[in-house]
Structures are given as C-alpha cells and as structure tokens.
Amino acid sequence: MPANTFGEIFRLTTFGESHGPSIGGIIDGMPAGIEIDMSFIQGQLDRRKPGQSDITSPRKESDTVEILSGVFEGRSTGTPIGFIIKNKDQQSGDYDHLKDVYRPGHADFTYEAKYGTRDHRGSGRASARETACRVVGGAFAQLLLRKVNVQVTGYVSAVHEIQIPKNVALNKSLIEQSIVRCPDPSTSEKMIALIHQMKEEGDSVGGVVTCICENVPAGWGEPVFDKLNAKLAQAMLSINAVKGFEVGDGFGATRKQGSEHNDAILDGQYTNHDGGIQGGISNGRPILFNVGFKPVSTISKPQQTLNKSGEEITLEAKGRHDPCVVPRAVPIVEAMASLVLADAMLLQQSKKI
Amino acid sequence: MPANTFGEIFRLTTFGESHGPSIGGIIDGMPAGIEIDMSFIQGQLDRRKPGQSDITSPRKESDTVEILSGVFEGRSTGTPIGFIIKNKDQQSGDYDHLKDVYRPGHADFTYEAKYGTRDHRGSGRASARETACRVVGGAFAQLLLRKVNVQVTGYVSAVHEIQIPKNVALNKSLIEQSIVRCPDPSTSEKMIALIHQMKEEGDSVGGVVTCICENVPAGWGEPVFDKLNAKLAQAMLSINAVKGFEVGDGFGATRKQGSEHNDAILDGQYTNHDGGIQGGISNGRPILFNVGFKPVSTISKPQQTLNKSGEEITLEAKGRHDPCVVPRAVPIVEAMASLVLADAMLLQQSKKI
Amino acid sequence: MPANTFGEIFRLTTFGESHGPSIGGIIDGMPAGIEIDMSFIQGQLDRRKPGQSDITSPRKESDTVEILSGVFEGRSTGTPIGFIIKNKDQQSGDYDHLKDVYRPGHADFTYEAKYGTRDHRGSGRASARETACRVVGGAFAQLLLRKVNVQVTGYVSAVHEIQIPKNVALNKSLIEQSIVRCPDPSTSEKMIALIHQMKEEGDSVGGVVTCICENVPAGWGEPVFDKLNAKLAQAMLSINAVKGFEVGDGFGATRKQGSEHNDAILDGQYTNHDGGIQGGISNGRPILFNVGFKPVSTISKPQQTLNKSGEEITLEAKGRHDPCVVPRAVPIVEAMASLVLADAMLLQQSKKI
Amino acid sequence: MPANTFGEIFRLTTFGESHGPSIGGIIDGMPAGIEIDMSFIQGQLDRRKPGQSDITSPRKESDTVEILSGVFEGRSTGTPIGFIIKNKDQQSGDYDHLKDVYRPGHADFTYEAKYGTRDHRGSGRASARETACRVVGGAFAQLLLRKVNVQVTGYVSAVHEIQIPKNVALNKSLIEQSIVRCPDPSTSEKMIALIHQMKEEGDSVGGVVTCICENVPAGWGEPVFDKLNAKLAQAMLSINAVKGFEVGDGFGATRKQGSEHNDAILDGQYTNHDGGIQGGISNGRPILFNVGFKPVSTISKPQQTLNKSGEEITLEAKGRHDPCVVPRAVPIVEAMASLVLADAMLLQQSKKI
Questions:
Q1: Distances from the Cα of A13 to the Cαs of A81, A228, A342, in angstroms?
Q2: ipTM value of the model?
Q3: Extents of the domains making up chain B
Q4: CATH architecture of D5-348
Q5: Distance (Å, whole) CA B56 – CA B156
Q6: What element of type H or E holds A243?
Q7: How far D243 CA lies from chain A's nearest CA (Å)?
Q8: A232 to chain B nearest CA, in Å?
Q9: What pLDDT digit, counting tens, does each position of B294-320 carry?
Q10: What are chain B's partners, defined as 3 or more CB pairs within 8 angstroms?
C-alpha cells in the first residue's frame, strides 16, 4: 500500500518531484541515542549527485540535506527524522516539448495510464532524482548498522560487455578512486572509454552493480514471504532502470548440480554459492548480490514515438542525462541494502526473549 | 513484519510445517460475489503435488484442500477464506538422523541461528511443502483476475544448460503435455533425460521458469518502492531455492545500448524489451520475467558437513526429494505472480474517483 | 487493510463464520522457545464459551482448540501457529426465517450494503463466535507476557444501572467465583437477578467491563498515532457490541481541573488518574480502562423491522442468545488487551541498541 | 509499527518537534485529479492555531503550510504530497528549567523511559504542535470526501460540568461564531467564563468534543479488527489529552435494554442509538461520537514533582499554554475523522468488481 514507504520497523517514506521546490522524506524507527554523523550522510549524497564527473549528467545540484527533526544535540531521539533536499538547477523549460509526448523506455505513458495526469517536467516523480532521498535514508541505516559492524559495499562490476575478470580479487579501497566505481583499474579504464563514446554518440549503455554485505550475523531475515533475499530483490528492483537481481551464484546456479552448488558447512573454510542467505535467513557469511541496470532511456539520438494525439513523431531529447547510470547507482544500491538490513536487524532484536 | 503474510488488499497468510497435522492459510480481501471453481483450485494443487510423475519426489500427498469459511452457496462472501491441507504421507522417522545435523544448502543452521530451535522433521517450515498454500492463494487470485481476462502462464525454459532455442515460438497448449512443463517437445525430452540421469546419480540440477502475464491493463503497479516489478521480484525470491529474477530483457539489458533497448511506443507494432512494465507500472504489453532456481539441496550423494557439536560428519540423505524442482515450481511461480497482480488490480481500483 | 489481522510484530489473523465447519486463525510473531501451556489456553476459551452458566446462551460448544503448527515438543518454534475450533452445535435451520430480514441492531443490513451478499446463518462472520479466535490469540500473548510478569485482569463493573460501589477494593480472587464475573458479591447478586429477569422478559441489557494491566514496565507504546491507549481503544471497539472506551478517569477527567487531575510523580506514593499511560507510553503504574457494551441486539420480544423487499414486518427471534454479554466478554477484553501489550513489548524490545 | 503513520490507502506520516526548524508530513494515496483548495487547507490550520482568541495559548504561530510536491497546476497528481510548517515563535529558553524535571501529567518521564533521552524544549514530539500536521492531512482527506458529499463537523459539547442541554438542536452555523466552538450561545458564554476563570487561577479544565459525519454511504468500514468505530477510536485516542471515546449512545447504552436501544430499520423515520455504525460498517445514518479530553497538564499553579535525580521539587510552569484544549481540538477531531473516512472510502472502492 505504502507505495512511497519502505521498511517495517526501520522505515523510509519519501516525496518529491524532479522540478518541485524540494524533495524529502521521513525516517521512522531510528533507535534513540545513535550519533548522527552529518558529514557521512552528506558524503553519501555527494557520491550520488549529478555533475560529480564528466561521465555523469551535468545538472548542477549541491544536494544539500537539511534535517528538520528527530536529532537533538547530535544524536537521534527515537522520533521521526524529517529531511528535505532543495531542488536548485531546474531547467523546467527543457521539458516543454515533452508535455504531449511519450518518451520510449520512460514512464510517461504508464503514469498517465495510471493517474490520468502527470507532471511532465523532468519525469516528475519517476525521475531518478527521487533516489537522493533513498541515499539519505540508507545513510541513517548505515549509522545504525555500524553499531554491529555491518559493512555494505557496492561497486560496478560490468558496463555493457566489459566485466571485471573472474580472477581479480576485490580491493575495496580502489572503488572510489575510479569515477566509474570499478575497483579494477584496467577494467575501469575500458568502462570509462565506452561511456565517453556513448556520450559522444548521444546513446547510453547498461551495466551491473555488485554488492557485498559483510559481518551480517547469522539469523537476520524472515523466512517465507519476507526472506532476506526477497526483500533485497524488492529493494533493488524498486530502483529506476533495474531489470534483474541475483543472489550468490544467481542465474549461474541454474546451470549447476547440487553436489557442486551446496555450500559446505565446515569449520575454518567454506564456499558461498548461496551468497550468505539460506532459507531466507543470513548464515553469517558475506551477502553477495548483483543488480542489473538497463541503459538509460534518455538518449539524444532521434527516436520514433507517439504523442498524446496518437501521432507518430520524431523525438530528440534535450534534457541533461547520464550516458550510463551505474556509477551513480552504487550509493543507491548500498542505501537500499542498508535499509533492508537495518529493518532485519531491529526485527530480529524484537524476538529474543 | 508479517513474514507469513503476502499482499496488502488481496492478502495471503499461511502456516504449517511439513510434518505437522496440516498446513493451511487465510485469504483476506477476496471481493464478494466471485464464483469459486473448486476443481480449478484443486487442479492447480495437483500440478504442484509430489508424485505426479517419475521425475518428482515420490512422497504421496493427495493435497486435498478444504475450504473452511468465506464461501457461501458457491461464491465468495468478502470475508476471509480459511483453508487447510492435511499432511498424510509423513515419514518423520526418515529425519531422525538429521536432528543434530546441519545439511549443506539447507536452512537447518539458519533457522537454529534465528530461533534457537527448529522442527527438524522434513525441514519443518522451510520445507517447500509450504508452497502448496501459495498455490491455493494464487488460484483464488486467478479466479479474480479472470474477471478482467488476465492470464498468467509459466513454463520451464531451462534445465541446467538445456534451454529452449531462441527462435521457438511459445505454444502454450504444449506446456502441460510435458512432465517437465517445457512447451518445446525436443527440448523437453532432453531435460527429462538429464533429470533422470540426476536421479540415478543421486544428484540434482537447477533451472529457469519463465512467466508471461497477458492482458494486464496499463496502469497497474505503484511507482517508487512498490513497483510492479519490485513486488514480482520479492514474490519470486520468496520461493524456496530461487536465486535470481529478471524482467523483460533482464541481465541481457545490461549489455545493450539505449538506442536498441528503448521500446518504441508505436501503434500496431511494438518491441517489449522492458517486459511490460515501465516506471514500475504496467504498460499494457505482456509482462515477461524469468525466475532462476538453484539445484535442490537434498541429494543422496555423500556430503561432508557439521553436526551441532561442531564435528565434521558425512551425510547421506534418506528423505524423498525432487532431482529438479522447476517442473513443480511452475504453478508456484504462477500463484505468486497472480497474488501480486490481484493486489495491484484492487489497489488501482481504489484510486479511480 | 488487514481487516482480519490485528497487531504488527505479534499478529493474529482470524477466519470463520458461525455456521461453517470451523473457525480459526494464525498467530504470527510468537517468539521461539516459549512453553505452551495448552490447559491455560483451553481454560481461557472455557471462560468465553456459551452454556457455561444459566445466564449465558445455551448453545452447546466444547470450543476445543486444535493447534496445527508452530509448536514442537511443547514449545513455540517461532513459526506461525495455526489453529482451528470446530463448530458443533449449529442449528442453522433456526435462521431460515432471517434470510430476507434485517434484524434491528444487527449487522445484517450493513454486511449486505458492503458486500452485496451475506451468510445469514447465525450472523455469519458478524457473530460473536468470531471472538473465540481472539481468546486463543490472546492466550498465546499472555504466555509471552508472563515472561515479564505482566498480568491482565478483567471483571464486570456494571450491568445496566448496577455498579460496584466506589469504595469497594478489588479482590481479584472473587472474580471467577461469580458467574457474572463481578468481584463484589453483593453487586454480583443484584446483577445476576437482573439478568435472570431480562431472560424471562426476552430482553437484554448492557454493561461495563473494567480491565487492569499490572506490572507493565514504563516505556511500552508508541507516541503519536499508535499510542498505547489508542491501540487499546481500537482493540476494544473492535469487539462486538462495544460502544465506548475510557482510560484512567476517562470521561470523568473531562469534568476535572488540571490541578486535581495531574498525576503527581512522587516516590513511594502516587495517583493514577491517567490510568498508567502518558503521551501514549506506559509509565509503570497499572493500566486501567473501561469498556462499555450495549445490550445484546438479539431479543425475543417482537420488534418491527424491514425485509429485503422493503416491507415492514414483525420479527420474533428464535436463535439462542445471551441476555447480557459482559460476563462472557471478560476473557475477550483480556485477550485483546494482551494482544496489544505483547505487540508493544516486542516492538519496544526492537529499539534497544 | 508505523507509529508516525496513520491510514492504509490514504495515509499520513508526520514528523517534527515543537522547537525544531519545522514540522511537516507526507500524504500518500491521495487520488489524482482532485482540485486542491489551498485556502480551505490554510483555513483549517487557522482554526487550530494558537493565539486565535483570548482563551487560547498566546504562542504566535502563523502556521503557514507549504506544499512541496504532489500538486501540479492546482490538482493532485497521485504522487505523495510533502508539506512543512515552519516553527516561528519558539521561546526555547522558557524550557531550560524543565530540562531535568518530570512535569506531572506530561510525557516527560515516559519518553525518557522509552528512549533514554528527550528533547525537553516545549515537550518535543509530545507537544500538541504535532497535531497541526494532522489538520493538514485531514484537510486533504476532506477535499476527497467532498467528492461524495461527506461532511464532518465537530463542536464543543461540554467544558467541565457545563454541557449543552439535551433538548437543544444542533445549529451548525453557530459553531464558528463561538470562540469556544459551542453552537449553543448561552452554553458557550458559560464555558468561556469558566475558561477565563481557569486562566486567571493558572489552572486548566477538560471537556468534550462531539462529532457528526453526514452523508457517509452505507458499507464503509471493515468488520472484525478494523471496524469503522474501532479506527475512529484509535484515531481519537491518538490525539493528545484524549481519555475517552464513545459512539452513538456510548456509555449510555450500557444502562439500556435491547428493546429500547435497538435501532429500528424503518422507512422514513429511524432512531440512531448505534451512531451510524453496525457490525463495524456504516449504515447510512449520521455517524455520531464523543471525544473526552482531560484538563491540559500544563498549569501555572505550583505542583510537587520529581527531578531526574529523584529529588522532590516544586514546579511552577512558565511556558505558554491553553487553559482548555477543546476549542482548538475541534479541527483536530475533524481531521482525524476525515482521515479514517477517506481511507475507508478508498478501501471500499477497491472491492467493487
């Protein structure tokens, strides 16, 4: 029901359109007494914001978060945390030509089918700008998860056909050194080159974000409908442009036999084909999953489409956009994973009598 | 929170362990006045039940559903529909040797980590037997969806490396003629042969179920956190042994450019790379998704694992099991998809002022 | 949404009509490892069942609860607890004459307005028989609350104009010695005499149940919309025939000045005008509230009403009924209060980092 | 769970403390296309704001609402409506002396018991200032309810012992002509005189708000746990200082016999002892209920209480406060009732196949 609400005990509700005065949200369920590190929260937003490098959209947004409640003398009080992020660099005029057009791959037509109306400026509520609020919520979740030492780390593992080779070990310290957020320098270079090419061609390209959640204790997640993997799947598919989710070996597991896939439960050493979750519950090993993003729908190349009158027209997009969404998607994936884990943590805590 | 509840307006809550007296559930939110076709509901259960062919578990269960409330003179009354399915062929003794053992790939260890205890007989609540209740709930959802002509159809598109070739068109009438529920006869034969081989070897194998939802009107699904694809992802990942979900071109989309992936919105003809959902809302085209299942964890081959005392032991499973879960998973995938769609239908209906 | 579900973390969902094969429910969220005292649970049902004394309905129901899941070797497992209570003494024929009649004070007309249909036998889902499932759920909640020594005690404080005098101290041991569940023997006698008179006259009479919850620690309950008193109010008004709820001094407080009503916070001694809850959160003092029940709508005296064709007719009820509902309502009030408190307990536990 | 969220399909979430930069909220589920009458919304806030007459708190707040999203070209878009109300006349210094004191009748002690901390300035989240956001949410709900002509009207029916005489018919046009919002001029005068006296004495006094909801169609409200009266009860008890709720004859019904209380269902004329709701579902007659408020806890008279060190001290409050809360509570009661009804309206709409 709560289409704009995510989570049960640790809960984020968001509002806001791309071209309104501001976007924002409410974080409900943050336990009291947690130190609120504002520079960490703003830092997460900075990793998502447009204009951070020459492979992202040039829209200029400082994306400064203002906390309106729920924090007192530097700590959470247990009451809801309201926040807003003001929209600044709105060039709403850019979108006038889209008022009566359904852009291919976008939600223009579906919003109108659903609501009978839409705010056409900058995709309105369907804009990926909405995800900034998720990053704020996720940052608060991470402040909570830090208390039990859980670490959530995302990175770009593929852009189009360019993938990190299988034998490359993850070096987390290299992620933020790459503007595409790929921790393997040589793969990173190839990805950046491809994205530059796309930008020049006025086209876009898809990719994969991989996420690893470390130090999650065994026992988090609810079996049956709210399996930890199921909530992660919902969380990830709720991000704009995501078309696929897999945990552990994922679709690779469909091509395996039980005798090679079954994770041994052995002291000292183990395999992790299941990606840290069994029966919907964490088993103490790292939680591993992949999130597949389609190429950004907004491209500058001319495309055929329909307008509201049902006439076929040629569309040439003018708005600012990213040629590849995955570099900026990394903090969004981390945020959504953190929201899922914080909720699971608090729920599990409720059960220990 | 409601770990054993799925859906908001159309809502299924289930209970039951593999080796208790019965499993069952409550369907809440079924509108009044819908004709209840009991033979359809039982027929869906029959498609899921064990022992239906020589490639499924030999456990003998009639899986007869008994409706306890909410239906009067052949029609739904709008009140909750309680139902039970009695467990019959329980061979609990088969599981005595597992009391103190954590089986690889299973939820034995995680349930115990979560709850401090578990019913070890037949995997208890973690048993796939629980999914029979989903099939009942989904069948009621389908009775509702029929009213608007929505059709949900699943089939097996891959077993291990064996896939339906790309150029084969879907012939829905062939699905149920194949015991593996693959509509391409020559692929079906190969799949069945491989499953027989696994059975002989005491091993198991994974696979993929593909699902198509036809005639879903444009406008279903909630944007942002409850996108239609996000709820489908949660629904699918909540099924035992599922490790991946993708909608439309899915992970294939990550290797595409926007100019080739963007679905044209044109009269008469269209592409459907997005799989019928844009911005989280249905666009009127068929909804298409894939669900990846890992190989069944229970195998007869000897495996190394730990017991509760932390000693390494060799496990040779004795319980009855399926060498490949996908043939029986088809009605489960359909059921979960139907639950998602019925909920979306009722919610969308609430909004039209 | 979940009209047949109550609670968030500790959650009861029920089903069943008065004249179906059985009623039942699912308790979700019971922590694992709690000893399940079946005789206590059945004992609570016995306090609610009809035919327990000559002032209650003569319908004969053993009201035997059968647990179908979630309990293993005498303890809760953390998985959902399914249960049923079979209907036995159904005299559905008694209700044939009511098929086309809207009984005054009943839900016949409103169910039909809502659903376009109704199961007219014994009030269907609107029957107070539904509350038996609440008593089961509440009994499980009490088993949980016992762990922290919380005690929930209800009793009849008024029947019609007959009230326990203000100066009589509560002696809990006398409650169950009175068939009307009034702990003051002389008041109890007068109540019983009045109820006998009503029975003879074919009429009915209202009354008040008072409830005291002891040893609730300070800090339970959520401020703002889910205040502990607000959830108790919903819980109580959800019981059939309840028309009023007040906590602490209740409506009496509306006729007071702040200087006399404000509870002193002093060591050793205190007043409790607020009834143990301030700002929606328990303060450690006993929680006190009153629940007002209207007279049972079913009476044998002839009444004028309408039938479905809109004709005015004279109705003479034949079904079996209680001349006064409050004696049997005591365990129902206790059950609903226990469900609210168990949920509050688990939620508060989730917050302690 | 969602302690700061109210409603299922039509849903309000709020945040904000009395002395932060602003309070605000998010309205989710407003159907698209509804004309948003900003002057109506601001007008409802004006009825609640302090300083509106000499019998209310002198805190000066313009209480100007700013809409941040969800409204486009004067109409709702179906997306969440974010709003804020800036706090202006904060005199936080007034509260320094309360930092270590638990005020009698207040939530100071309980918040600290729950959260281990509290924002002591102006009662923080426990301040009635929070209800301004409810008024905004309720005003949007009323804009929706107008579409089906539902009218929600509250008024003050009692202050301390002063009640509107039974034989006085309700003249709705007189309500807003009285600063105490009592539609009977002679009773209104007496109430105002008493409140002035309380103000002089530094004391406070309780009272009753009565509410009537007209033109609610038959069939709204869910039976069993979410009965329309049960949701109204939760809604009302969730308002600060409310201690009692009764629907129809309420506690008066406990002193009646069935033969006098049962509402006749007759053409043309009817009684309405049940207050428009039967079996939890509206019956088409006016919905009538009373809400009892305790005297405001903040008084200027010296009171004995404890500080954090457990020492007994004498407290003399300095903050600004209302000697009687009911005049300003009228729009809050209306708002909460409207939220309940809007939710019931949308939910009922979802069920008509």
A1: 10, 20, 15
A2: 0.96
A3: 5-348
A4: 4-Layer Sandwich (3.60)
A5: 14
A6: strand A242-247
A7: 23
A8: 8
A9: 999 989 898 888 888 888 888 887 666
A10: A, C, D
